[in-house]
Design goal:
Helices cover 40% and strands 17% of the residues. By secondary structure, the chain is α/β, with parallel strands linked by helices. Helix 3 crosses helix 4.
Length: 172
């Protein structure tokens, strides 16, 4: 099993009403160097300017990004290449990130290489410390800057720390 942390930037709250802008993925392994970044053009004419602004990408730039199909094909190939066993989707905000990645995989490839489920980092931490309201973001070693690879790498680093603290999960 391989843990892959994913972070998504989008121009609204839900696909396909809104579009994914970019995403980053990092394998949970000591170097945190196995990374993928995808940038995809809009699939909808709708967007929320305040949501798009978080990504740091203008609407004009977003419109020039690549069609989603080839990007998702490369992402699926990367997942197959870097995974040892079944890939496991991990995220800071699983409810948000998963819906975009899952939708785009099914819409453009007909299947999701992560299967049907994922793990939320905060829930893993809450279980470890036996507090359903515990916060974990203090464990990040780099700022959350909304570059999806940077954010995924910081969150993958937190996963490594949880493993060091005794969480029984594989790190390549």
């Amino acid at each position: 099993m391989s843990l892959i942390v994913v972070d998504v930037e989008a121009d609204g709250p839900v696909p396909p009403l809104y579009s994914m802008v970019s995403f980053g993925a990092v394998v949970v392994e000591p170097s945190l160097e196995l990374a993928f970044k995808g940038e995809v053009r809009p699939i909808s004419d709708r967007f929320l300017p305040e949501a798009l602004a978080i990504s740091g990408v203008s609407r004009e730039a977003h419109l020039r990004f690549e069609e989603p199909g080839p990007v998702m094909e490369r992402f699926a190939a990367w997942i197959a290449e870097v995974s040892k066993g079944r890939p496991v989707f991990c995220s800071d905000n699983l409810a948000f990130d998963w819906q975009f990645i899952n939708y785009y995989f099914h819409a453009y490839l007909g299947k999701n290489p992560f299967g049907w489920s994922g793990r939320r980092i905060g829930d893993l931490y809450c279980g470890m410390v036996k507090d359903g309201y515990a916060t974990w973001k203090h464990l990040r070693r780099t700022p959350h800057d909304h570059d999806p690879v940077n954010d995924a790498r910081a969150n993958a680093g937190v996963m490594l720390q949880l493993i060091e603290l005794g969480l029984k999960l594989p790190a390549r």
